[in-house]
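Problem: given the chain below (251 residues), write out its structure.
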Amino acid sequence: MVCVPYLHCILLIKTKKRIKMKKLLSLSALAVVIGILSSCNTGNKKETKLQNPVAAESKEKQIAPNEAKAKTMADLQDAFKGETTASAKYAAYSKKAEQEGNHNIALLFAAASKAEKVHANNHKSVIVELGGAVPNITPEFTVKTTGENLQDAIEGESYEVTTMYPDFLQDAANSKTQLAQISFNYAFEVEKKHQTMYRNALLALNNNTVNELPNVYYICPTCGNTYDQTPSERCGISMTGSEKFIKINSL
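Solution.
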């Protein structure tokens, strides 16, 4: 038989052990919490340090407008050179097409040459208005057969429509240069029409149906918009009155 006082002592010892264990657990938990808080504070300090690059980036953005305007000016100069070359090249392609007996294709090249000249003059005017330097350029190109010349024209127009002018328009939007946006957009919209006209001409050449191609064109003097049929009262791009259009029906 176990003595009651003895049991009481045993229970008292166990109780004290449990209390001591709880204290140890509480201290351990507190240590963990302190560790977590310390980590958070360290993280906050790191985040504070990371704010400096953001501030530096903001300073870089402050000079971005000037860089954007410089990029737009470079785009205008490149576009001027490209359109000047295209105008001269298409004029030469027109002569070649006429020599090979493809009169209606010769008319198309002549009309496109006139339109590209309008684009070049528009770009030049914006360059001058913005205080830039108009590039000196001597167009360089090679005249081949009419079929090869048409293929070259298609590739050139495709590049302008899919890459060059979309990029230039974005640059002009970034720099908020409205005059450049207008000039680029005029050319962009017209080159899409030229691309289609050249494709139709190449198809007609391959199918021996060149005589079925349009034999008269109308050019808007404001944007270079090119019509292969009687236009409406106003240009669909610049809203210029059709009475001012340039008619191309002979070489």
